[in-house]
Task: inverse folding
């Protein structure tokens, strides 16, 4: 028997084995429904399991990806992330109204297009503003699925980060918890892409009632959404502090010593500045470096991050998301004198939240235009704030100046 004949027979045997398996005997419609419940990475892995599933996946690949993408609660934010552009910093362009469509077949009639994001026509500055129309194709869908994969990774990691000190309490997130987390992650990523990335950056601390694009991103959120984002940022601060910006070191207690994780810059009080510098990396880069940080010592890790972020100017400043959050909360407190000075707990996890009724009171105070509803008289009554430069970044390197 020739080698080619032998390989052919082995292939036929594998095909017969697949067709006799429970998954191979299922109707294709059922298999497609199973695939639609998967995330992008699981979907691809499932499609590569065997020839039969690969055939089903490739035949329905576009429709499957479309269904997976449309099911993501953070899709509206990820679409903006995918289309981030330098032009968005022009007047009235930041987070401007867009309508995003997709067609399975570009030759189809316009009425058959699928809306991924639909913004209404609105009135601004005494004129009607129509949303910008954007049409996506299959390659765009694949790239958006990659963004969703990054969010999926953080969702899987979050229980370990949240219950770091109480591993016995770890559990999968509930549906509403996952929705809150996914949207907060996407907002953090979008903010990082605009204001911690390669674009021009404002070198000054955000000031109340300024026309500041950084504040625009926070003003469009409700107080509930802002506090959920702040809760995520608190968890990320601890993650960067302990998992990225700490290294094993010998710690002495009397005459005895032990090896523990020592925060970078601990002795000089530099550690908070170091963490706030690396928080600018955002979800994508942090995912990569957290996954490989155990393979590098401190010096090599700092160099690897520096080499990967040359266009980000990492040392020019520290993260500003926490500053923007605090500034917008101050703005709302100033404009509403009856507003309580403290908020009920509104974290990502259910146990970190007050009752639904208490949280619901803070779910209707967004400023959709990105500008605070302040009159000229109220603005004139505000005290002048001195412009302060952002603190410089610190990568944690041991330098002698």
Result:
């Amino acid at each position: 028997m020739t080698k080619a004949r032998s390989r052919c027979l082995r292939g036929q045997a594998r095909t017969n084995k697949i067709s006799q398996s429970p998954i191979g005997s299922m109707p294709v419609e059922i298999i497609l429904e199973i695939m639609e419940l998967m995330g992008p990475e699981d979907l691809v892995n499932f499609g590569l399991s065997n020839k039969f599933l690969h055939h089903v996946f490739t035949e329905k690949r576009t429709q499957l990806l479309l269904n997976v993408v449309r099911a993501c609660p953070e899709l509206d934010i990820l679409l903006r992330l995918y289309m981030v552009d330098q032009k968005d910093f022009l007047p009235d362009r930041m987070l401007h109204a867009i309508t995003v469509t997709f067609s399975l077949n570009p030759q189809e009639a316009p009425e058959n297009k699928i809306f991924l994001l639909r913004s209404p026509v609105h009135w601004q500055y005494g004129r009607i503003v129509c949303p910008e129309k954007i049409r996506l194709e299959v390659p765009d869908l694949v790239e958006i699925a990659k963004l969703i994969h990054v969010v999926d990774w953080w969702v899987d990691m979050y229980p370990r980060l949240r219950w770091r000190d109480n591993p016995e309490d770890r559990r999968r997130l509930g549906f509403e918890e996952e929705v809150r987390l996914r949207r907060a992650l996407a907002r953090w990523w979008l903010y990082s892409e605009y204001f911690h990335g390669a674009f021009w950056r404002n070198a000054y601390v955000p000031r109340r009632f300024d026309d500041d694009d950084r504040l625009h991103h926070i003003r469009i959120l409700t107080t509930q959404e802002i506090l959920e984002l702040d809760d995520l940022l608190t968890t990320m601060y601890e993650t960067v502090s302990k998992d990225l910006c700490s290294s094993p070191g010998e710690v002495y207690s009397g005459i005895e010593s032990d090896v523990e994780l020592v925060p970078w810059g601990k002795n000089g009080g530099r550690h908070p500045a170091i963490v706030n510098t690396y928080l600018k990396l955002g979800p994508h880069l942090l995912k990569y470096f957290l996954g490989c940080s155990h393979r590098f010592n401190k010096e090599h890790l700092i160099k690897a991050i520096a080499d990967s972020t040359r266009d980000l100017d990492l040392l020019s400043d520290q993260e500003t998301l926490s500053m923007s959050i605090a500034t917008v909360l101050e703005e709302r407190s100033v404009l509403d004198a009856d507003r309580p000075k403290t908020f009920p707990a509104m974290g990502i996890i259910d146990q970190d939240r007050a009752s639904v009724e208490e949280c619901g009171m803070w779910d209707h105070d967004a400023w959709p235009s990105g500008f605070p509803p302040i009159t000229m008289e109220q603005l004139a009554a505000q005290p002048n704030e001195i412009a302060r430069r952002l603190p410089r970044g610190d990568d944690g390197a041991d330098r002698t100046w």
About this structure: The CA atoms of residues 11 and 136 lie 39 Å apart. The radius of gyration is 25 Å.
